[in-house]
Amino acid sequence: MQRVVAASPDPPGRTTLEEKPLSPRKPIRRPNPRAAARRSPAPRTMEPPRPVPELMDEVVDEILVRCPPHDPARLLRAALVCRRWRRIVSDPGFRRRFIERHRAPPMLGFLCNIPDDDLYLTARFVPTPDFRPRRAVGDRGRAVDARHGRVLLHSVPLDKMSFRFDLVVWDPITDEQRALPRLSLHASPWTWNAAVLCAGVGGSCDHLDCHCAPFLVLLVAVFNDRIVSVTLLVSKVPRITP
Amino acid sequence: MAAPESGDGNNGAARMVTLISSDNTRFEVEAAAASLSQTLQLTILDGGGGGGDGIPLPNVDSATLSKVLEYCIKHAPAAANGGAPNATAVDRAELERFDNEFVNIDQSVLYSLIMAAHNLEIEGLQSLVAKKVADMIKGKSPMEIRRTLGFPDPTPEEQAEMNAHMLEYGWAYE
């Protein structure tokens, strides 16, 4: 009745049905979960370490997608294990599955507009202890808005005297930045504000994985002569679906 | 032999199917338990596995299959109830305790299990074992992960690559 059979080290691809001479055909038996539970610790003893079969890509994917998002270092270290694992983790499909599984993204840091020596505000990315961005700080200007992983910065010109709409969209995680075309205005605005948005049209985007996708920047300026200017900038012409 | 302990059957005459491992051991289980496997479910729905036929599983050896079925038998009643909507907290706690103990096993068994769960498409088991391996690599450096999972030693080229990456992403090792 009692069998102590070590797990087979056979590779997964094996398809032949072979008889093992030392384990004669057993009569039909019903595995008893309690008996099995009692038995399970037994084979742990005196098993020398042996080469384990290489896990298939899909299996590695299943494992790594279960790394908790609040521990980004674990996924990064897994990506450094070997080239194959790196390829799996870097795949956009993996990223998508990872985000879909965990939904609530972890907080990797926050932005803080801090005045410099000349009292001009500059955005700093303050990371959590579990994460460091590729570059911690960039003197790129003040953060005006942030949404879906993108930050809209208003760059202050070097002379800091003239007003210019130099806007930059920054992804603090990848450190990619895209300068927007400079807008020519007839005067300095009395007040203004701007927002960066995902360009997913008509609610077609769930914003889980769109930080590399096209974006919109909406800019509203009010001038002293009561003229209101509204400008819409589009990073790339998104596919408009009616 | 003892009567089946699981299933708390409605009429005690649950349909049974026979599964045949790669080393030709035959296992008779309730169809409901075997049907946790998406792969087997189709065959069973088609009426396979009954009588003297049996369903051959050429990729799963008897030790692994026995372990897989232990999981299926334990989880079949909850699955039959459509997950856990009307399961009591005690039931769920019991399943959780079972799951935790279930994956507390030798690594080679764990590997065989993960392959079997994948091939047989047993979602809960796939998830359970994958989660266990994900937990095993927690807090480990790439080199330690390699050792834990039985990778061969890295080639000098791979080692140099790992060192370069570790320099670049030093924060992940603090």
TrEMBL record, chain A:
Residues 1-52 are annotated as: Disordered. Residues 33-44 have a biased composition (Low complexity). It holds the Pfam family F-box-like. Residues 55-98 form the F-box domain. SUPFAM superfamilies: F-box domain. InterPro entries: F-box-like_dom_sf, F-box_dom. This is F-box domain-containing protein. The lineage of its organism: Eukaryota, Viridiplantae, Streptophyta, Embryophyta, Tracheophyta. The gene is ga28553.
UniProtKB/TrEMBL annotation, chain B:
Pfam families: Skp1, Skp1_POZ. The keyword Nucleus does not apply. Pathway: Protein modification; protein ubiquitination. Residues 16-75 form the SKP1 component POZ domain. InterPro entries: SKP1 (IPR016897), SKP1-like (IPR001232), SKP1-like_dim_sf (IPR036296), SKP1/BTB/POZ_sf (IPR011333), Skp1_comp_dimer (IPR016072), Skp1_comp_POZ (IPR016073). Part of a SCF (SKP1-cullin-F-box) protein ligase complex. This is SKP1-like protein. It comes from Eleusine coracana subsp. coracana. The lineage of its organism: Eukaryota, Viridiplantae, Streptophyta, Embryophyta, Tracheophyta. The gene is ga14711.
